[in-house]
Batch of 2 targets.
Target 1
Amino acid sequence: MKAVHQVEVLDTPSDLKDKGIQKVAEAVNGLVADAFALYIKTKNYHWHMSGRHFRDYHLLLDEQADQIFATIDPLAERVRKLGENTIRSVAHIAQLQRVKDNDEDFVAPKDMLVDLMNENKKMAKAMRDAHKVADDAEDVATASLLEVYIDETERRVWFLFETTRELN
């Protein structure tokens, strides 16, 4: 009996070219790692928010964290639909994430909001870059998924930007 490699067992059939699939999977796995890291960072700031606008910011960040979290499974499943492996552990996330952690004991509310605005801006750019990779691979499904997430990410940037405008 011929031995079957584990990778072959997980290899989902696709009509896309192997080289394109690998590039899309790499780009999307980076987004999955970033989404996990941005989710945790957003929840960190949500839990540690303080100040006179506490309730508004606490609720805003909770809503944004939920939205970010909701992107993780569809993105990871997209990688699996392409027959590739996706994130397997927290260590794997740490290897791929571009979102910078913040382990400070205290961060001022405005600094939290500005940091999240900048991280979301970087996330939108990374999504647009991944969209280009998907377009080049003729992967319409991944590109379509990313279009919705780009819009949601840009909305988060907008809300965070507008929220910081009146803070001194």
Target 2
Amino acid sequence: MDDITKNRYRTGLEVRRSVLGDPHVDRAEDAATDFDRPFQQLITEAAWGTVWARPGWSKRERSIVTLALLAALGHDEEVAMHVRATANTGASRDDICEAFLHVAIYAGVPAANRAFKIAKQVFAQMDGSAHG
């Protein structure tokens, strides 16, 4: 790994940890094998070290856009993960609602319906209750 790549990876790891939390990143790193380690490096460098680390948008703004895109594309596990991450990004539940309302109009009601359901389940877990 050259110095630029090492710096991008280091930056990405810092940003990834600040958004997703140490326990999540530690689990991902511990679960990595020779097979998927290059993928973990790629997302750490590209998503976190390049895109999420860019100036201009706050983590809150990036979080809102990310949630809308993931919901629109039907990436349920990633929606749940990024809803949990809002505890670290500053995106509020109102922000998430607004993002999913946009999803309903621009990507379809079924996608938004699923995203709202997932978010409610995650909020219930975050709030320590069994029901959303």
